[in-house]
Write a structure and sequence with these properties.
By secondary structure, this protein is mainly beta. The protein contains 2 helices and 40 strands. It folds into 5 domains: 105 residues, Immunoglobulins (Immunoglobulin-like), CATH 2.60.40; 101 residues, Immunoglobulin-like; 78 residues, Sandwich (Immunoglobulin-like); 78 residues, Immunoglobulin-like (Sandwich); 83 residues, Immunoglobulins (Immunoglobulin-like, Sandwich). Helix 1 runs antiparallel to helix 2. This is Activated leukocyte cell adhesion molecule b.
Length: 550
């Protein structure tokens, strides 16, 4: 089928249309196809088909022949017949809105099928003109005029706000429409005027209008309304602290907003024109208080805010470098004054302390750099002191031990003092080793090879004084002559022990004999026992003699 054809049936028949009429809608400027007998198949005994309208015949077609154009008017060059007997009308205009009749002669019957032709045309475009410059809340204002042209039938225009249709209510929304017909083409132009009473929420609203499936470009309006409320805002980078700048901003809900304000700074009025802000520089704790802003031409419309300036004071005693003597006390005082809750932390030589340091009796290990950090929110204060504990060096211990190879003696001298003590020995050694100086303590080791028994002195000293300790050190090994003397001494000792034992036994036996004489006992048995004892003594002496030879 050809483009631009729409078919609407009022009365539908199975083969004929009697006293009824079909309606066909065609599109303006296109070729329209008007069906015969609603597009039903041709009868088998068809003799002739003819199309006509109120002003005359258009064309005819006999069976098995080509269609012949009969029209002599404006349709002469615009009509033709399709294969299925439909009437084709080229370049349709509104003047083609007529009733066309298809007459079919078949056998002895003549049937006529009237068709009413309607021509439609969509509007060429939709636009909003005569826009209002602004909308005032509560005041009816002609928002604009929506226009669409070259349409048939006349287009119906709908207004939208934020894509939702606006319905006239005769109060806040009043819509009036007007239609004009072009005398030459018969096409219509429709205009629609919207009178609208704005609300505060319409500030960012988008308005459009549309006809059929065509929408205009969205438009928005400046909505004006008086100020009903103002608010004071404080603008700063982080919490307000002493030394910072504080900007006060007065915001009004009117549109357009006021351009000039009065700022009340702790009882002093400052007038600001062409701006809604005022900056207070280098605030202090005395800047704490109530601040206000108001409209110049309406002092009753104001807002206020209580503003607190945060501050933190800290004082540490002592500070800097502190020199103290060993065993003394040190009073430590930390004073704080702040506008809020504080947190205090201590470090010694960058190491965190669990609590505040106390110095009742100073030791060398108390020396170091102490730092205190006091925080209150984003406010941070720091201070520090360096404690140096000095004193006369004291030797805590001297010791000796044999080396692993047994050929040397290792002497140790442990001392405390500050500044760092110097360690000196009364003898020279083969090697010396000194430990790191930590918390006032130092350990010095000296390796020696004594050839004779010695009394060694360890001396420690610094600018405050000195201390000494002694230790007795014996030799580690013996020479060949000494060894011989030792062996001889052992042998002589053994011999003397043997003689003493023998003499003691002899005296015992002598007393025994005297006793037997007194009791009248026989001497034979005693003489025999005496002989046995003498033999044992001789054996013992011979054994000791052999040991001496070895």
């Amino acid at each position: 089928s050809h483009a631009g054809l729409c078919l609407h049936s009022n009365i539908l028949g199975a083969g004929k249309v009697v006293n009824g009429m079909d309606t066909v809608i065609g599109l303006y400027g296109e070729t329209i196809e008007v069906p015969c007998n609603n597009g039903a198949p041709k009868p088998k005994d068809l003799f002739m088909t003819k199309w006509k309208y109120d002003d005359g015949d258009l064309l005819t077609q006999l069976k098995d022949q080509d269609a012949s154009v009969i029209a002599t008017d404006k349709y002469k060059d615009r009509v033709s017949m399709a294969e299925n007997s439909s009437l084709l009308i080229a370049a349709a205009t509104l003047k083609d809105e007529k009733t066309f009749t298809c007459m079919v002669v078949a056998g002895a019957d003549i049937s006529e099928y009237p068709v009413k032709l309607l021509i439609h045309k969509a509007p060429t475009g939709v636009e909003i003109t005569a826009l209002a410059t602004e909308l005032e809340i509560g005041k009816p204002t002609q928002l604009g005029q929506c226009r669409t042209s070259d349409a048939n039938p006349a287009a119906s225009i709908t207004w939208f706000k934020n894509k939702k249709p606006l319905v006239a209510d005769g109060k806040g929304i009043i819509i009036s429409s007007n239609v004009k017909v072009d005398e030459a083409t018969g096409l219509t132009t429709t205009s629609s005027t919207l009178q609208y009473t704005a609300e505060k929420g319409d500030t960012a609203a988008l308005f459009t209008c549309g006809a059929l499936n065509t929408l205009s470009s969205p438009v928005s309006f400046t909505v004006t309304y008086p100020t009903e409320r103002i608010s004071l805002h404080v603008i700063s980078k982080g919490p307000l602290m002493e030394g910072a700048n504080m900007t006060l901003k007065c915001k009004a809900d009117g549109n357009p907003p006021p351009t000039s304000f009065n700022f009340h700074i702790l009882g002093k009025v400052v007038k600001v024109e062409n701006s809604d802000s005022y900056t207070v520089t280098d605030v202090t704790r005395e800047s704490t208080g109530e601040y206000k802003c108001s409209i110049i031409d309406n002092a009753k419309m104001e807002d206020s805010k209580n503003i607190t300036i945060n501050y933190l004071d800290m004082s540490l005693s002592p500070s800097g470098k502190v020199m103290k003597s060993f065993g003394e006390g040190l009073a430590l005082t930390l004073q704080t004054h702040a506008s809020g809750e504080l947190k205090v932390s201590w470090t010694k030589d960058n190491g965190k302390l669990d609590s505040s340091p106390k110095f009742d009796k100073l030791t060398y290990s108390d020396s170091g750099k102490y730092e205190v950090v006091v925080t209150m929110g984003a406010l941070i204060k720091k201070d520090s002191f360096e404690l140096v504990v000095e004193g006369v060096p004291v030797i805590r211990r001297v010791a000796k031990r044999r080396s692993e190879d047994g050929q040397h003696k290792v002497l140790t001298c442990e001392a405390e003092g500050s500044p760092k003590p110097t360690v000196a020995w009364s003898v020279n050694g083969t090697s010396a080793d000194e430990s790191p100086y930590v918390n006032g303590k130092i350990t010095h080791k000296l390796t020696i090879v004594p050839t004779v028994n010695l009394t060694v002195v360890c001396t420690v000293s610094n600018e405050h004084g000195q201390d000494t300790r002694t230790i007795n050190v014996s030799t580690c090994k013996y020479n060949e002559g000494d060894t011989t003397k030792l062996v001889v001494g052992v042998i002589v000792g053994l011999l003397l022990a043997t003689v003493v034992v023998g003499l003691a036994y002899w005296l015992y036996m002598k007393k025994s004999k005297q006793g037997s004489w007194k009791t009248g006992e026989k001497e034979d048995g005693s003489t025999e026992e005496s002989k046995k004892l003498e033999e044992k003594i001789e054996e013992k002496l011979e054994e000791n003699s052999q040991k001496v030879e070895v």
